[in-house]
Amino acid sequence: MSVTYVSSDVLGSTVLLTDETGSVTAQYEYDVFGSIIGYTGTKETNNLFTNQEFDPESELYYYNARYYNPTLGRFISRDEANLGHDGDVISRNRYVYVKNNPMKYTDPTGNFVKEEQDQIGTLSQMMAYTKLLATETGYYKLSGNFIFGYKTEGPFLDIGALTRKIGGSTIGTIFNERFNGGGSDSGNDSMDKRYIYTEMAGLIDMKHFFQLMYLGDVFWNSFAVDKGIEHEETAENTSKYAPEDTTSNALGAYFGSTYDPSNDKVDDFISDLSLFLSKLGPVDFNNLSKNKQNEILEFYSARNEDTGVPLNQNFDAIPEYNEKAFPFNVDDKNKAKIVDTIDNK
């Protein structure tokens, strides 16, 4: 009985078949979307581009949930597991393959699970990214005098500029929207790692966190929470009270209302923010078992097939999905609002 060994590229695509002697028995070459543009050899396999099963008769790949046409770079049926995300136009196309970026992403299930997973970072990654943006948007001060000389100190945190950089709204936009129906502040609206996963709060959407942190700091906790609820009430069906939203909002509003960033250096802000998030038990999502990862992704991405509404909506600050007890107390009258830590009660 002959033995065949498979060699793959970084995407998991089969590129070489070799026998027990190490001799090459087949070689495959693909274009970026998976069409076979080169083949030589005497052996064949059906597990080809990203290790998915290829049907030679239809020239389609089977991606478990759907069939994929590599010539078009599109699935031939729509994605039923994910209806897209606010601010992400490409994700609204439910036939698109890996956000039109096959050099970076793969899609082993036929849905956008892998793409979502790539947006979940570690606490250290999130803090490094936040520090980069806070430094870029921060400001500096001169200290000293004419006799002994001057020196530059900083960078200091500009919480409004940081919020705008992340793509959030600041005071001018909030009141413009309220009275004139205006748009949002301009920001880059792109966070390379938007989420962190924690044992006590589940998945945290840091874009929601930072927006509510700003409102909690500039106004107060209750105001920020109410604005978060207002946003959820007017959101599209696919994101209305998504399971991570209310918890992320509550955490950001509470942190912002209890933290005074005035005249604070960026390093001090990052240290305090990291300490706050560390209380939630952050873990490296990629180090979890595949079964655990899939369980988490399915919980947070599940949508009603007909309406698109999240199946696991959450209206309270306390998360629906967590492995350990939530370390904060919530308001008896407004369950979406954190009032203090359990240790402080």
Automatic annotation (TrEMBL):
<protein>
    <submittedName>
        <fullName>Uncharacterized protein</fullName>
    </submittedName>
</protein>
<dbReference type="InterPro" id="IPR050708">
    <property type="entry name" value="T6SS_VgrG/RHS"/>
</dbReference>
<dbReference type="InterPro" id="IPR022385">
    <property type="entry name" value="Rhs_assc_core"/>
</dbReference>
